[in-house]
């Protein structure tokens, strides 16, 4: 019953605005009476424009396997107003002293440096990024960086409805909302806090303000929420959602075990039994998601297959933790402190050499789910996802 009510509430949401974007390249106007360009000619012209106006990709952000890293995830805080079972140990964690966390100016200094070298997408994470008091100002200042095409945020949605109008005005262009169940009581069990209706209001507000798609991240755990796969997908029938089913991943303190993990193929099989017409969509370059769509549905669904079918070969992601460490792999335990070098007065050139050395040491792929489960790594909340 709760699922149906939630679905009906969401189905009533209408998009009130349509966001648009521009590539920055000049657009050829077609004059009446003149022959129009073919699609192939237009594509060729656009590619020529990009070749002439785009600098070579930075060697500092290219690893030894030729992977170019154009996507940076920055954790704004280690704090969170929820206690999700797969993210934070039940007993909590010792937080980094405030003096050891990156300041706003340090975050922006590093962001400017990375964007200058070729980063064109930044995602703000946490902890819960929307509890940071200056998050709107950070988004606004990132929006001023020339070459940065996308500013995204991953949030638990608790504060989203209240802050999203300001964030959109500041320049926020993409939203991921974590939601692992459509059942309010189960929500409280998973996150150990109340707040289900606030998350739903956040999804409502994102659609109302024209974000499309609104990405909903669902970590699937056996015995807990794998029975809700069909309910989540049903939401995409009338709403511009991209429901992303994420394989349960091992991190310190979340008591991961293989039996809790529901693999991509198992989830896909469940959905195909209900919707045999399910279509696989073309994979985007460097995407971590395997995307599918049910014909006639407004939204789509995706799978993040970090455990069963890794995507290391096309990984283009780097991470900066809230305390200023650069992680070149989510599942690796190797880190280098950019904060310490910044505070020691390192020049831009020195920072780039440090970053380049770390990127150059990035491995071809992670060690596999069973090795990762035994590896000492931070809890997810201290990494930023």
From TrEMBL:
The EC number(s) this enzyme carries: 4.1.99.22, 4.6.1.17
Residue intervals of the Radical SAM core domain: 64-298
Keywords per UniProt: 4Fe-4S, GTP-binding, Iron, Iron-sulfur, Lyase, Metal-binding, Molybdenum cofactor biosynthesis, Nucleotide-binding, S-adenosyl-L-methionine
Pathway: Cofactor biosynthesis; molybdopterin biosynthesis
GO BP, one annotated term: Mo-molybdopterin cofactor biosynthetic process
Record has Acyltransferase as a keyword: no
GO MF annotations, alphabetized: 4 iron, 4 sulfur cluster binding; cyclic pyranopterin monophosphate synthase activity; GTP 3',8'-cyclase activity; GTP binding; metal ion binding
Record has S-adenosyl-L-methionine as a keyword: yes
Reactions performed catalytically: GTP + AH2 + S-adenosyl-L-methionine = (8S)-3',8-cyclo-7,8-dihydroguanosine 5'-triphosphate + 5'-deoxyadenosine + L-methionine + A + H(+); (8S)-3',8-cyclo-7,8-dihydroguanosine 5'-triphosphate = cyclic pyranopterin phosphate + diphosphate
Cofactor entry: [4Fe-4S] cluster
Pfam families: Mob_synth_C, Radical_SAM
Annotated function: Isoform MOCS1A and isoform MOCS1B probably form a complex that catalyzes the conversion of 5'-GTP to cyclic pyranopterin monophosphate (cPMP). MOCS1A catalyzes the cyclization of GTP to (8S)-3',8-cyclo-7,8-dihydroguanosine 5'-triphosphate and MOCS1B catalyzes the subsequent conversion of (8S)-3',8-cyclo-7,8-dihydroguanosine 5'-triphosphate to cPMP.
Subunit structure: Isoform MOCS1A and isoform MOCS1B probably form a heterooligomer.
Family, similarity comment: In the N-terminal section; belongs to the radical SAM superfamily. MoaA family. In the C-terminal section; belongs to the MoaC family.
Protein name, per record: Molybdenum cofactor biosynthesis protein 1
Organism expressing this protein natively: Odobenus rosmarus divergens (Pacific walrus)
Gene: MOCS1
């Amino acid at each position: 019953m709760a699922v149906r009510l939630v679905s009906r509430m969401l189905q009533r949401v209408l998009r009130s605005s349509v966001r648009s974007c521009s590539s920055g390249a000049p657009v050829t106007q077609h004059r009446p009476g003149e022959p129009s360009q073919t699609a192939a000619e237009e594509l060729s012209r656009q590619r020529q424009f990009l070749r002439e106006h785009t600098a070579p990709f930075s060697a500092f952000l290219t690893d030894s396997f030729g992977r170019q890293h154009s996507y940076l995830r920055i954790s704004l805080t280690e704090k969170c107003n929820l206690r999700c079972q797969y993210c934070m140990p039940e007993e909590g964690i010792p937080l980094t002293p405030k003096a050891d966390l990156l300041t706003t100016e340090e975050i922006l200094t590093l962001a400017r440096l990375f964007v200058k070298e070729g980063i064109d997408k930044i995602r703000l994470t946490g902890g819960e990024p929307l509890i940071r008091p200056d998050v709107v100002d950070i988004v606004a200042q990132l929006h001023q960086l020339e070459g940065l095409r996308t500013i995204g945020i991953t949030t638990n949605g608790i504060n989203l409805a209240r802050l999203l109008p300001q964030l959109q005005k500041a320049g926020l262009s993409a939203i991921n909302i974590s939601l692992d169940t459509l059942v309010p009581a189960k929500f409280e069990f998973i996150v150990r806090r109340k707040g289900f209706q606030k998350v739903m209001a956040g999804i409502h507000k994102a659609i109302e303000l024209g974000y499309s798609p609104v990405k909903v991240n669902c970590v699937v755990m056996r015995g807990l929420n794998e029975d809700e796969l069909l309910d989540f997908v049903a939401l995409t029938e009338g709403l511009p959602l991209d429901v992303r089913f994420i394989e349960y991943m091992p991190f310190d303190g979340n008591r991961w075990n293989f039996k809790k993990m529901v693999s991509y193929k198992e989830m896909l099989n469940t959905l195909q039994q209900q919707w045999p017409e399910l279509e696989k969509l073309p994979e985007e370059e460097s995407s971590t998601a395997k995307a599918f769509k049910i014909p006639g549905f407004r939204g789509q669904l995706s799978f993040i297959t970090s455990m069963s079918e890794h995507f290391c070969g096309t990984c283009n992601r780097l991470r900066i933790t809230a305390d200023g460490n650069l992680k070149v792999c989510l599942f690796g335990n190797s880190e280098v402190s950019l904060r310490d070098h910044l505070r020691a007065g390192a020049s831009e050139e020195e920072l780039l050499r440090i970053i380049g050395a770390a990127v150059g040491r990035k491995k071809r792929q992670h060690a596999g789910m069973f090795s990762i489960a035994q590896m000492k790594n931070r809890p997810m909340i201290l990494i930023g996802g």
